[in-house]
Design goal:
Elements (H helix, E strand, L loop, with lengths): L3 E3 L5 H8 L5 E3 L2 H12 L7 H13 L4 H4 L4 E5 L4 E5 L2 H8 L9 H8 L3 E4 L3 H11 L5 E5 L23 H12 L4 E5 L8 H6 L6 E4 L4 H14 L3 E7 L2 E7 L27 H12 L6 H7 L13 H19 L7 E5 L1 H5 L5
Parallel strand pairs: 2-4, 5-6, 5-8, 6-7, 8-9
Antiparallel strand pairs: 1-3, 3-4, 9-10, 10-11
Helix pairs in contact: 2-3, 7-8, 7-13
Amino acid sequence: MKPILFDPQKDRKIIFKTINSSGVEVCDLIKDQLEELVAVRHPYLREDRRKMAKVKESFIKEFDFQDGYLKVGKWVYYQENKKLVHFLDEKEHLELRTSRNRNLITSSEQKIFYNFPVGIAGLSVGSHAALSTVLQGGGKYLKLADMDVVSASNINRLRISFDKIGKYKTDCVAHDIYGLNPYAELTLYREGLTKDTIKGFFDKGRKIKIVVDAIDSIEMKVALRLEARRRKIPVLMATDNGDGVILDVERYDLNPRAKIWSGRVNEKDLNNIVTMTQVEKAMLINKILGVKNIAPRMLSSTREIGKTLYTWPQIGGAAQLAGVVLAYAIRIIANKLPLKNGQTVISLERILSFNKL
């Protein structure tokens, strides 16, 4: 699953052996990456192509490029699909990959965001949170928890190809993250979050500093918040809602005595959550989200579950929007920038369709 990183200075023989192995696809565009890095570092030469070419040539001469640029950066072998890809070293790879983020994200913000450890529980909406975070240059350290495998009906909202059906969601998401950043350090919980794994999710290895709740189990949602509050860790939850999203931000880092879900539910009522009926749990969810916030088509659809619908409907666009919103919130909290606490409704129906849908 995790790709193998080869150091050209130490692993020269095995790199050559892998390059010449049958069936291995080699992608070596390191010169192109270096030339683009030079351009990024010398934006004032954008219109002076001749001088830019000289600077690129001078820069590249600093490296020993014998054996087809073998000694630069790192060679990364993806065992699953037998691909050997030539990357810049981590620092330069991040610099180049996030160069178009500037100045929307400052250099100091980018560094903090990259190194901010995040735990994501549930990889439907959570998969988009993970990928959007990494896409924006964050998420070197991620813990991903989900016990499910990909099913055919998941494909309407996951950025996963149909040939991945039957594979663990954790593995599929990890595969895509490593493709963007082979230097990522991921911890996968294929068994999902349980009473036996939840403490390790927070504390084992590198301790997470924020939690994304994207799990279905109401029992585990409560447990997640109780554990986060004990550790003064903020919790984010983005619920896809028709074509929109309901975002919950719970800042236990700022107020460790805060009520879960901002006090919209009575915590004493949660003591009996294990014995609640499905109807009682549905009523609890309505309290958490607020009936007035639920998109009309979504609300009417919930009444059809077990009748004309097997489970609640979810749209891919909403799941992706949730991922974008969560990635933004993670970056803002990591950098201690202003972020609205509590619940925020982001409704495309309200904004674009005049509440007609």
